[in-house]
Hints:
The protein is of the alpha/beta class. The chain contains four helices and five strands, in the order βααβαβαββ. The strands form two sheets. Strands 1-2-3 form a three-stranded parallel beta sheet, covered by helices on one side.
Amino acid sequence: MSVHEAREDDVKPGDAVFFNTGWGSLWLKDNAHYNRGEPGPGEEVARWMVERQILVAGADSWAVEAVPNPDPKLVFPVHGELIAKNGIHIHENLVFDGLLADRKYQFVYIFCPVPMKGATGSPGGPIAVT
């Protein structure tokens, strides 16, 4: 969904919420800048997603949260809120170019992770069905 196309009431339990920050456009073009930090949701947005009982949060960035955190005492608090405390999966480094070009802001999201025993993440090919 796009901020310009969606309302808070559009987000229902079981949905996925994705953030297009534009940060992914730096990948392989300015890796030093890309790796230095990134924009993304903060703790308030993480709590909002928990309240709405989403299943997945994703972004075109490498952490799906603001890095560094505005509070220098905190490191990856959105990961902690979503993954550790609430079992909400995150999907990093997504590419939204085709969806945005076609103005597709709502879609069925499919991701089949590679099953790996003991892993905390998995590669796979995300699919958006419009």
